[in-house]
């Protein structure tokens, strides 16, 4: 019976590419593994897989009775709904330690780096397994995405070194140009329903028994949202009500200006304002220099709810 390697709900490029890369590594060391996913591909991820010739991993929503290797999170809210009925054999992650627990020992690779695929590159090095050219390509794209082409404060020297190494293997001479190509795909929002945009990169967090949803849209120019911002606000309000959430935040991140406009719907917006020491105006606030949900948005919000 194989181990299923799977990322979080509403998977991003790190989650999908990491599952493919880690499943390949485990198969090379004699641990039969299959990459899977918990949702549809984002346009960016579809672009990456198409560029390097990969099909999407198997869509699998139920894991009861299965062995599972978790990639890119350690949170119950982001795991398969029946994760309590599965056996977690390992976790690869670069976020804060979440609330997943196990009844048996497991392998954990958790590092304070910008991307799970950076850690997976370290695992390939540890096991002395050669990385195929196509897998190197998707891994470097995932790192470029998560680190916002090295602009994010989560980016480390390890991330940069791994991208440089992977680019050589993948035969990519200008990886920053490839990164910009990816972000242009992300920036193409015209004609996309508001719900699809809100859920493109959305995660739920348990903050002191309050469910808080945080989405993020990274683009090269915030003007792409000018005609649809009201629709986005209406949709996060609907999403809050549907999921019985305390708050929903949507980060509209401008990677060129290096900051984020945050759209907020909350039972108590004062908590959100206190987290960032900012006053909102009509449910919106600008956070200069904020690019990372993981490092700059979640920690102060978690502290405010505590």
Task: Explain what the structure shows.
With 306 residues, this protein is α/β, with parallel strands linked by helices. It has 2 domains: 3-184, inorganic pyrophosphatase (n-terminal core) (Alpha-Beta Complex), CATH 3.90.1640; 194-305, DHHA2 domain (Diaminopimelate Epimerase, Chain A, domain 1, Roll), CATH 3.10.310. A 6-stranded parallel sheet has the order 3-2-1-4-5-6. Strands 7-8-9-10-11 form a 5-stranded mixed sheet. The chain has helices spanning 13-28, 43-51, 116-127, 133-146, 157-170, 175-186, 194-198, 229-242, 269-276, 293-305, and strands at residues 3-9, 33-38, 58-59, 67-71, 87-93, 107-110, 202-207, 210-219, 247-254, 259-266, 284-288. Helix 1 (13-28) packs parallel to helix 3 and helix 4 crosses helix 6. It catalyses: diphosphate + H2O = 2 phosphate + H(+). Its EC number is 3.6.1.1. InterPro entries: DDH_dom, DHH_sf, DHHA2, DHHA2_dom_sf. Keywords: Hydrolase, Manganese, Metal-binding.
């Amino acid at each position: 019976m194989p181990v299923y390697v799977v990322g979080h709900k509403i998977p991003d490029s790190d989650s999908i590419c990491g599952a493919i890369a880690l499943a390949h590594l485990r198969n090379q060391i004699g641990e039969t593994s299959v990459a899977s996913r918990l949702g549809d591909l984002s346009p960016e991820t579809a672009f990456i897989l198409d560029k390097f010739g990969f099909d999407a991993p198997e869509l699998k929503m139920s894991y009861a009775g299965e062995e599972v290797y978790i990639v890119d999170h350690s949170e119950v809210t982001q795991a398969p709904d029946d994760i309590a009925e599965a056996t977690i054999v390992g976790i690869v992650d670069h976020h804060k330690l979440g609330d997943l627990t196990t009844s048996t020992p497991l392998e954990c690779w958790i590092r304070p780096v910008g991307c799970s695929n950076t850690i997976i590159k370290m695992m390939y090095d540890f096991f002395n397994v050669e990385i195929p050219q196509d897998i190197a390509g998707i891994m470097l794209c995932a790192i470029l995405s998560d680190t916002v082409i090295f602009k994010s404060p989560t980016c480390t020297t390890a991330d940069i070194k791994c991208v440089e190494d992977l680019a050589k293997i993948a035969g990519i001479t200008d990886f920053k140009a490839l990164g910009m190509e990816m972000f242009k795909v992300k920036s193409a929002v015209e004609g996309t329903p508001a719900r699809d945009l809100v859920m493109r990169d959305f995660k739920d967090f348990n903050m002191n028994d309050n469910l808080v949803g945080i989405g993020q849209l990274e683009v090269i120019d915030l003007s792409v949202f000018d005609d649809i911002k009201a629709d986005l606000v209406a949709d996060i309000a609907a999403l809050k009500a549907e999921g019985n959430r305390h708050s929903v935040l949507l980060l509209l991140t401008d990677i060129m200006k290096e900051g984020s406009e945050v759209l907020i719907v909350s039972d108590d917006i004062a908590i959100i304002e206190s987290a960032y020491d900012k006053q909102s105006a009509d449910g919106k606030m600008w956070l200069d220099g904020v690019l990372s949900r993981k490092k700059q948005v979640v920690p102060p919000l978690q502290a405010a709810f505590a």
